[in-house]
Amino acid sequence: xxxxxxxxxxxxxxxxxxxxxxxxxxxxxxxxxxxxxxxxxxxxxxxxxxxxxxxxxxxxxxxxxxxxxxxxxxxxxxxxxxxxxxxxxxxxxxxxxxxxxxxxxxxxxxxxxxxxxxxxxxxxxxxxxxxxxxxxxxxxxxxxxxxxxxxxxxxxxxxxxxxxxxxxxxxxxxxxxxxxxxxxxxxxxxxxxxxxxxxxxxxxxxxxxxxxxxxxxxxxxxxxxxxxxxxxxxxxxxxxxxxxxxxxxxxxxxxxxxxxxxxxxxxxxxxxxxxxxxxxxxxxxxxxxxxxxxxxxxxxxxxxxxxxxxxxxxxxxxxxxxxxxxxxxxxxxxxxxxxxxxxxxxxxxxxxxxxxxxxxxxxxxxxxxxxxxxxxxxxxxxxxxxxxxxxxxxxxxxxxxxxxxxxxxxxxxxxxxxxxxxxxxxxxxxxxxxxx
Length: 436
Known about the structure:
Blueprint: E1 3-9, E2 19-24, E3 29-36, H1 39-54, H2 64-85, E4 93-102, E5 107-113, E6 117-122, E7 125-128, E8 162-167, E9 173-177, H3 179-182, H4 187-200, H5 204-217, E10 224-230, H6 246-264, E11 271-273, E12 277-278, E13 281-285, E14 289-292, E15 296-300, E16 305-309, E17 312-315, E18 318-322, E19 327-331, E20 334-337, E21 340-345, E22 349-360, E23 362-367, E24 371-382, E25 389-391, E26 397-404
């Protein structure tokens, strides 16, 4: 069975992560995007591009190369519109590589702009499917040649989206990565690691963890994002949950990108405030964004129900007091809180959290009596405490609960290369190590 995983890391030098990824195994759709423009602008450009690629429709009468090219052009159009609307983002852009699995897992279509890369590894060795679009000539004083194509450039001539189709087979390892991986890790070492991962036959999540760790071990000079797919049985439309919990990490990267597009897009969605008191069934969802201030407390009285679904909750602190027999549902939501998320459950109260990512200073869940706590496909990243804290007699039912924020372990020193260096695609130009 096919497995897929996406991971991203800020690295050891950069203060912000301007990368994004798309990991949609049920569609056979994967992408890595590297934003440019600095801090907020780069993050916005990457988010816009990720959203456009994630929206690729299932149009069986059109070749995937055509569909992916259209997605790249739509991403560029959206980035240019946003740059025009917001002067502080006028220089933003992004580079991207997107692939789509075709022929029931027998081939992949690739669309590519810039210097993100894709590789296929199998018994024949490592094959690089893309080549870098970099400027020709000397770039005195630059650590590497700048990209010649990106999704924020106002003028690009000809067929600036490079496409191709390549055969694949069960067991092949497909890897997409931003230059935070291939600029930090020498070609020979990266080729050796890709072959080692393929031979070990592990799932995609093991591959992304190892490759991220390798980039960090080599200094982590840039943001690094990796999407890995272990090719297996594939039929478009299969539920992603059947493909393993690692997939959900990638889904959240895409979901965070979509949320960022909503936040920074030209037409800003309404920002709403959470109520102080919930007495009936109350739902917050897309497209509004929810803002919480310092010390915010919401009380759900006995029997009431608060449902926060498909939105983004941002701000400082949020304390939720769930009364007797009341329910709090959090689903398909991202939390970005500078302070604490605290949930206190009274007798018989219920807390259901599913397909949700929580980034906060601390997370504390307290049960004061009987009740129900269900956590399914939840990702916690706590910056001020070691993961979420649970207090009380009710033990959470946990399925695929992952604590993020810690770098993967540094891999052992690599063995001598057992594969030849990765040959660049035909027409490739060499690229010096460095960052964009």
